[in-house]
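We read letters as residues; the fold follows as tokens. A sample entry reads:
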Amino acid sequence: MAITSFTVQHRGGGMVVWDIRELVVDDTVQWTTDLNYSAGELTFDIVEVDEGFTPRNGDIVKMSWDGVKTFYGYIFDFKYTNEKFSVTAYDKLRYLKNEDAIVWPVTTVSQRFDKVCRMAEIKHRVVNNSSHKVAAEVCDSKTYFDMLKSAIEITTKANGQKYFVIANYDTVELRRAPYRSLTIILGDQSLMTKFEYERSIDDAATVVRVVREDETKGQKSTATATGKSAKDTHYTTVTAGSPHNIDNWGRLQKVEKAKEKANVAQMKAQARQLLKEKNIQKRTLKLTVLGDISLVAGNAAYIQIKSLKDIGLGTSSHLITKATHHFGKDYTCEVEMVVNK
């Protein structure tokens, strides 16, 4: 396996295409995909040659690995030192960092995705449609990424489906996760060379309070979702958590303002929902594995690691949230996963 195509072309500069495969410094090509609303990134070093070629910001970069079209993007930064260019290119998702002001009517994630991509003037496709209607919203001086993030989070809360955006070579796509459930097994006996498993409650909450200012009486009316009952008479309390987590983790409290014009019943529902989201451990798994081009953010892969099985994590499939490929003689990949159990 090897890089089978690697070209740079000046935007608007005619039909001249530079083949830079022989100019790329060994083991400097790195490609990253990430579900955290960021563009795919390709970094590489190339040696300077006396043939009139110099990379320019905005240049089109195309790369294929083992005959598979892998990256299509544009140069956004380069450094020159010791007769070498260090280049950073981003795929078309980079243009979703554009800021804008939009008054959204009631629309779906799919409709909002289509509109922002059209406004950013990037080729796009809805792979998985969403039918959930997101409430009208005013977005002022926000990035397209932030607009989509808000709509996706609302949709996920409503129907449990996780959507994400990613570049499929030269086309930005809206997909539902996991996009592909790979049959690849990553583990002691298959591809893996190193792993790190983490459980964290640093962002967890065992008590949630939703607060609404009572303007007529000058007092506060509060709905609380907690693993244990509260006796404060100034608050309306609903029990929606697990006493077990309070006993083991302590009182970890989160306060949130009530939604506009929410009544007490709606505040209780809001508190229960927020507690459901926060009353958990965050589990992440990081692996270093032999490279495989299908290991990209948004896909899922199986893990099978004996020492993890010993602490309760057996063979199971998990979503890849970030993948960094290191191309070269030794093709490796760093994979980050969200572990849901």
About this structure: The two ends are 35 Å apart (CA to CA). The CA atoms of residues 17 and 152 lie 39 Å apart.
